[in-house]
Each structure stands twice: as C-alpha cells, then as structure tokens.
Amino acid sequence: MINRFTTGFTIAILMVFAFLGGYVLAQSPAAPLQVFAGTAVSSNVSEEFTPFWEVWDLVHQRYLRQPVDDVALVEGAIDGMLATLDDPHTRYLPPQDQSAAQESMAGEFQGIGAEVEDVDGNITVVSPIDGSPAAAAGIRPGDILREADGVALTGMDVAEAAALVRGPAGTTVSLVIDRDGELLNIDIVRDVIKLATVRGEMLDGGIAYVRLSRFGNTTDEELSDLLLELVAQDPSGLILDLRHNPGGALDSTVKIADQFLDEGMVLFERFGDGEERPFEASDEGLVEDIPMVVLIDEGSASASEVLAGAIQDRGRGVLIGQVSFGKGTVQTWHTLSNDGGVRVTIAEWLTPEKGSINGTGLTPDYYIPLPETAVDGEFEDTQLQAAIDFLQGETIISVPPEPDLQN
C-alpha cells in the first residue's frame, strides 16, 4: 500500500488492519487534495439522486420490519457505490474499523496477526505477521479463511470478516482454513501484537542481514539505527529480507529506499489523467555500495514491491525467491464526518524503468523454492542460503516454477 492519508493505512485482520494498508502501499503523500474536495459532483446531482431518495422513503414507509437502521442504510449505500468501481482496494470502513486502521500504523494490535485480501470473493492471506499468533499457528500466504467461529467468510466483505476474526487478547478464534483444497481446523489464541518492523544481525562471513516485516510510521528511523550498528561492523554484503512484507506508507518507503540507492529514481506515480509524478532518492544513504541481495516471495506486496522493484531496475542488487504479490496501485485515505473512512485508488505506481507489476508481481533474478518437507523437524531456509552463497561468490541455480499447462 502507499500512504497519503492523514494517518494510517490498511485494514489488517490482526488480524488487524495491516492488510488493507500495509498491504496497501498505497497511501500517497502526493495524492491530489481535490480528490475529496467535492468539486466533481455532477450538475445534475439532484436529479440523479432522486431514485435514491425515492427508495429511502419507500423503505421507511412500507418496509415490513420497522424501525430501519438509518446508519446501516447509509453505510450500505456507500459500500454499494464503491463496489460498482470493481476495485478491491477502494473501500469504505465504518468508524470502528477506521479507528483500527489508523491504530495499525502505531504498531500495536489485538488479534491473530495476518494480512488478508479479498481475492475473487475469498478472504485470502497475504502473509502472517512476524511473531504473531497466526505465524505461530502455521498460517501461510495463500491460505483462504473459510470460517471463523462457525460463520462462513466466503463472499463476505473483508472488513466484516476482519471484525469476526480479530478480538481481545487471550480469547480464541476457531478458523477453517482452505489450503490448496484441503480444509484445516485451526484454533488461534489472540494476543496483543506489537510490531517491531525492523530487525537484523551479522551472519557468518561478514554478511549483514536486515529483515523488514512491514512499513510503519517509524520504520525508516528503526532501519537507520540498525544500519548504523551493522555498518560499524564493516559488512562484506547485505541481505534485505522483504518476504511476507505486506507494505505500508509511501513516504516511509521512499526514505527507506534512499538508504540503499544512490541519487536517482525510486518510482513513478501515474494518475488517471496521465500525469506522472517521480519520487527520487538522494545521495545520502548508509549502504549504497555494499553488494546486496533482496529476498521476495508471494507475500511481498505493495511498498515492499516498490522497494524491491527500484533496487532491481537500478541494478543495485539481485532479487532471490519467488514472484511477488503484484499490488501496483496507490490509495489515499479520507476520514469522513461519521469517523468512518474511505480508501480510494488514485494512481498506479511504476518502477524506475516504468514497469508495472499490478496483477503480475516482480520476477526474481533467481527463483529459489522453499522445501515442502522438514528435515529433523525444521525447514531449511533455502532462499536465505542462496542469498548468502551469491554474496560469497558461489554459483546458485535458478529453479523457475513449472508452467501452468491449463493456461
């Protein structure tokens, strides 16, 4: 997601609201303010709204079960209006969900800790959050949430599904997970999830490892502090791990990219009228020259794709792992008078070479699958090992996925 609203971004189920936002890279600080100025209203608005008020009066006068809930009617009308745009990233959040979305950027939630997206009517996991109950329970990217405490989630609005899954710390939610056609019953105890977005260490061989789990309000400061510690140890190489990273705020993403890239382009925003707005890095980064590998996977979305795409296009480093999620649009948030919120897609983002990844994702320079079976109870991180090998000058073999014969 890219961040331009006044505060926060996605709706994560935390299940909390890191999904719509994190996963949104899409709140852009460059979004035109006139998007919400109300100046685009048709001159025939009174006539166009006549059927709406006719139905409103009919429901209040003739509907069987009275009184009707006016708030629900209004919110339903907003939902219906946005649904006609056929854009899963343009949506309305009622006040309680808007509040949770804003709080998500502060880095603390109560829930299970998984970013989700509506994919063809299925509540689909983008990625579990590092250290969350969802991650501990084995929830994986691509898992589909079919039920929560016996309530069917398929076809449900993602915000409504999120409300069913999140809840107070210490309580349990019973989920039915669809994993490649197999139904799994998983009980998860919700917790308070504090999201430290950056961690790192020095690996053997003098290689610095940096893990970004999401892009929050303080990620750029956290990263700067960590890089100062790592650079002081004179690393010979750098691994940036963006796997399972659902994204975050654009302004934070550009600042983070500036640490790795010398002066030049990070991305372009392209608006509906064809206008393109560039975002550039300065020449003041802490690690602009250290040999670099970026790890990506199917859970790397939005802001993490912006960062990885800039590094790849600029020739700054190589990408290792799997094809990324493929979210290439930009959203802006607006808080409404009822304390609800609307997220609206206002642009798409392009890599420095003006490549679009929306719906396709980034292609790694080296495909490296993760093993499907454990050895002695543990899964080998073949992607991380490949990154280490690459930086040490060893040959690594790309293993592209088998072509889909059905397409």
Describe the structure.
The chain is built from nine helices and 19 strands. It is of the alpha+beta class and 407 residues long. Among the domains are: 33-89, no CATH class; 198-329 and 337-391, 2-enoyl-CoA Hydratase, Chain A, domain 1 (Alpha-Beta Complex). Strands 3, 4, 5, 6, 7 and 8 form a six-stranded antiparallel β-sheet that branches. A six-stranded mixed β-sheet has the order 10-11-12-15-16-19, with helices on both faces. Helix 7 (250-260) packs parallel to helix 8. The protein is globular.
Largest sheet: 6 strands, antiparallel
Principal-axes shape call = globular
Number of strands: 19
**Helix and strand element order:** HHEHEEEHEEHEEEEEHEHEEEHEEEEH
CATH superfamily of the domain at 198-329 and 337-391: 2-enoyl-CoA Hydratase, Chain A, domain 1
* Number of discrete helical segments: 9
Beta-strand percentage range: 25-35%
CATH third-level topology of the domain at 198-329 and 337-391: 2-enoyl-CoA Hydratase, Chain A, domain 1
CATH class annotation of the domain at 198-329 and 337-391:
Alpha Beta
Low-confidence stretches: 1-26, 28-39
Class computed from helices, strands and strand pairing = alpha+beta
CATH architecture grouping of the domain at 198-329 and 337-391: Alpha-Beta Complex
Radius of gyration: 22 Å
- N-to-C span: 29 Å
What would the average pLDDT be, to the nearest integer? 85
Helix content: 10-25%
